Amino acid sequence: MSRVVGGSISGVTRRHPDASDWGHNRAASAKKRRLNGAVRSATSTPAAVSPAALGLAVGAYVMALAVILTTLATGLARGLDRSLVGYRVGRALSTASVVFVAGLVGTGWLV
């Protein structure tokens, strides 16, 4: 290591002995790419998730976040008073469901 750091780096950067054979290697790699493409096209691709299932998953995620984040925010600001948390979670759930349905309908109009 001291030879490379303190001295010349010519031993590190010298030409590879098989450098004249690069054309053959490129042809072989092109053949490999063609074969890989043929194998990929022959195999079945995984099925995409249906928009209805994805919409249901996103809706459940939005509702869960509305409950969790509202409970956390209320607990940090005012303490875990059950009636206040219940009131704010109910308000957050109704707002989140209206916004989610509006976004779903708006996306349906755009797409």
Give the terminus-to-terminus CA distance: 61 Å
Summarize the biggest pleated sheet.
none
* Outline: elongated
Extended strand count: 0
> What is the overall number of helices?
4
SSE class: mainly alpha
Overall pLDDT confidence: 78
Low-confidence stretches: none
- Provide the number of structural domains: 2
What does this structure look like?
This protein has helices at residues 2-6, 22-42, 51-78, 82-110. It is built from four helices and no strands. The mean pLDDT is 78. Helix 3 (51-78) runs antiparallel to helix 4. It is an all-alpha fold and 111 residues long. The protein has two domains: 2-42, no CATH class; 51-110, no CATH class. It is elongated, with a radius of gyration of 31 Å.
Keyword list:
mainly alpha; 2 domains; 111 residues; 75% helix; elongated
Compact description:
The chain has helices at residues 2-6, 22-42, 51-78, 82-110. The protein is mainly α.
